[in-house]
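Journal club side-thread
Mid-discussion, someone asked how the predicted structure for our own chain would compare to the paper's figures. Pasting it here so we can look after the session.
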Amino acid sequence: MLCQFKTSDPAHKRPTDENSPAPASTMRTRNQSYSLTSHQDFDHAGRRDRGPQNHQGELKQMENCFKSMQGNFRKLQAEHKDLKRTYDELLSVRKYYGGAVDHIINNAIKPYARKRRLILDKDDLKSLAAVLTPMLQDALNVGTLGQQVATSQPRIQILHEDLNKMSGAKNEVEELREQVAGLQNELLAKVQDVSVVSDEHFAQDFHSIAALIKTFSRKIQLDETINLSEVLEPVALLAKISPHHWKGRKRSKIFIEAWVWSILIECVFTGAFAVFGKGCESLDQAWKQIFGSGHDHGWPQPSVASETWRSTTVKHLIDAVDESAIDPQGVEGTRLSMDEACALVSSRLRKNLGCLNSQADLASIQKIADKAFGLAMQMSKQQSRLQITCPALGAQYQGEAMSATLDADGEEMTHGNVAFVINPGLSKWGDAHGKSFDQRYEIVRCLVQLEHEYENVKTRRECDLA
């Protein structure tokens, strides 16, 4: 309790007149006050001093208040020490568990929140609850899975025993692998039994097809008003070629010749397995997936591995054709697939060329298709790589791989750029024994029409504008 009392100076005891003002010192003495903690509240405002006895009583009361305050102070000190000790203990506990909580948040809760794309603020209880709720649910689910794993332990033990038994047979497996590798080499070696066809024979067959196509194109009687590029379906060899190259009856014949060759390239010579029809397109895709497609016209780079794989597969396909000749449904009907492919080529040729002249020798079309398929079959059977090739438009003339026709003035050209391809060439990589694939041979050079460089630039501009 707050104790208040006043002390007075002896000067205020002098008698004074009621109307006279009190001395300044007396006023200051009267206004002095002290505050102490005690059980009573003493208010001496406006009261006069009552003598020495009253002062002694007041001092006694002050002493009692002071002693009471000392007791309270000691109690507060003791309570402060207890609170300080408790605070230090709580601080230590908080520091210990705070580190553990931070470890749990950083190593468990935060990664889970990132994985589930949840927002986490460790100082926000709502944010923590939003992450912990699904996390606990997942933990319960994991517990269920743990029970399933526990029930599967006997089966796992059996599997471990089986694996131990299998590991004991590792040496036997290695021996079997060696035997399989030996059998594979033996099978690949048998491909050597394929009859080797000479380069001269391939050149003769190629020239035979070229002669048939040229003769056929010369026999067609064309109406000079017909625009061949609009009547015949678009093909690769004639794409982006300036129309001025086809002006005149002679150039129209060349156009037909190049168009027929383009159909043969697209349908018969486009891949090593194209001769076997659509039923074997997956084999061509597998060949390119295994060995790549970075060579000419998207074929694999010639190598011992790629050409052995190709020729071995072709040999099995030929065996399948022989079997299906007896049983039409044998080995997925390979013979039927080949017949359909040949019929498709003949149909495309007849459909387009018949529109030019109803009197055209359509019987020659079937002969051209048959000879093309026969040549493609012989090419695919060889250990070496044989491929129908042609240069790109605008390519620089190379005499070792190209043969140029006479220009518009009837003069021979030995320099310039390729204006268009009349018929492709036949190229070979490797030898008859399936080696030396880094060497290229031109069995038949491609036939091209050249133009001077300035004409080539003009042609390209016209094509771009078209």
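Post-session note: Residues 52-116 form the longest helix (65 residues).
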